[in-house]
Amino acid sequence: MSNAKRRDSKGRVLQMGENQLDDGRYVYRYTNPYGQRKTVYSW
After folding, report:
1. Do the bridges between strand 26-31 and strand 37-42 make them parallel or antiparallel, or are there none, so unpaired?
2. C-alpha torsion angle, residues 28, 11, 22, 26 (rounded to 10)
3. What is the helix, strand, coil percentage profile of the chain, to 5?
4. Does the global pTM surpass 0.90?
5. Residue 23 belongs to domain spanning
6. Does the CA dihedral 30-17-23-43 come out positive or negative?
7. 8's torsion region: left (phi>0), alpha (psi -120 to 50) or beta?
8. Could you read off the pLDDT of 11-40 as tens digits, one per residue?
9. What's the number of domains the chain is made of?
């Protein structure tokens, strides 16, 4: 496995489940305690 950390366009390290979209927004995906997938978007 690679030890390279995923980074956003500003050089910040992204956490597990966190991604940056092409338009610059961030998206965080997680599974709640009931097994449902949830998605949160933020600028």
Report:
1. antiparallel
2. 20
3. 0, 40, 60
4. no
5. 15-43
6. positive
7. beta
8. 999 999 999 999 999 999 999 999 999 999
9. 1
